[in-house]
Specification:
Elements: H1 2-24, H2 43-64, H3 67-70, H4 78-103
Helix pairs in contact: 1-2, 2-4
């Protein structure tokens, strides 16, 4: 199951890369695909908040992949991986909406 953990880690590194890109960006970063980046009051703080969100998501995603290292091929522990990803993904979106409300420009 080392191969599965390697793939899981590569995806986690991709998520970490999104966080690094958001941290270094000078323009407001978009979060949802296909939407324009929001108009925010403080671009730097907004981008850093979004980047920290991506860093936390990548770390939690990687932690969910640990059962790949310790369990056998058909172990029930893999349900933790499968069920955990939607849970942390929903949490990611909820936290992002709070970040957006905090930094969104008021008309």
């Amino acid at each position: 199951m080392i191969f599965g953990f390697i793939i899981w880690t590569l995806i986690s590194l991709l998520l970490l890369g999104i966080g690094i890109w958001a941290w270094r960006s000078d323009k407001p970063v978009g979060f949802f695909t296909g939407t324009k980046p929001p108009a925010v009051s403080d671009v730097r703080k907004y981008n850093h908040s979004v980047a920290v969100l991506w860093f936390a998501y990548a770390a939690l995603f990687e932690l969910l992949g640990l059962p790949f290292l310790f369990l056998k091929h058909n172990a029930a522990g893999f349900l933790l991986c499968i069920a955990g990803v939607p849970v942390i993904s929903i949490a990611l979106m909820l936290v992002y909406t709070r970040i957006l409300r905090r930094y969104e420009q008021k008309p």
